[in-house]
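# step 3/5: fold
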Amino acid sequence: MPDTPLLSKTLFQSGRECPKRMWFDHHRHDLKPRMSPAEEARMHDGIAIGKLAKRLYPDGIVAKYVGETDEAAATKTRELIEKGATTIFEATFVADGRVVRCDVLTQHPEGGWTIDEVKASTFEEGKKKPKPEHIWDVAYQMAALRRCGLDVRAGRLVVLDKTYAWDGGEHDLERLFTRVDLTAECEALQPEVEIEAQRLGDHLLSQEEPDAEINTHCKKCDYGRHCLNGLPHDDLIFMPQVRPTIVVKWRVAGYRRIPEVPQEQITDRRMLPAHRVLTSGKPWIGALLAEELNKIQFPAAFVDFESCQPALPAYVGTAPYEQVCFQWSAHVASLRLGRG
């Protein structure tokens, strides 16, 4: 008999976006496509940043190793706490159908514990707010650990500081990373976390694929090819620039396909060309296109360049994820082709 599935923080986050996606993540691995090179690169960036962040905690002890079961890691975590460990990496807790592995669990100065969640993202004080999904991530961990009887006092993000500039030597970890206190936000989410965890846990235990409303997020989902199979090419979700709330509004009004939507209900002018083409069946060409193209004087040079945004600065004076151009070329067209 298969093991009872546990709701991890990854499944919880996936389920908040779409319960069907969460269910597929656990029950239908065969539908998930292989990672693209870009996704693999992001994964390796995350691993490298996680390893660097651990060096901020020289007294840290690892509770879970690759291949070790959650139950064994949870037992080891309890033993480490009982022996007086002050910082634990991959601290693991299992209770009530949930499993949580904390990147870093460290003792709070006033007693109890602090959850530090390491993310391969950036933060700049006063200019950027933490992502909502990161807050939910830490809030879920906080709720799960409290169910295990742990006195959790705080939750923080450990992220890259956008203002950090590499000087060419060893990375100054205290400047490279910054800690963002999310305690208040996580406390406010606790009632909702419990409701969501119960709902998603029920879906996860079911052998039946859950129903889920198709919307714009489905286009970027790993399982989009499966869920969108057979959907007409002019479904509302394919309207350029359309927001999920607008899709819902149109569906409530009885519309299912783009040509069915009256033009007066389209308030974003960027949607109008697609609406005209799908309604008339004829191509649309902007009235000013020919005029703008005729302004080009020949011979004309077209510059092309390649760039990268390394998570960890690779060049002196650059910051995390700063765009760096490493190759460029100029393509010259000496004659105008076509009419005009």
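# step 4/5: annotate
The longest helix spans residues 183-205.
# step 5/5: archive (pending)
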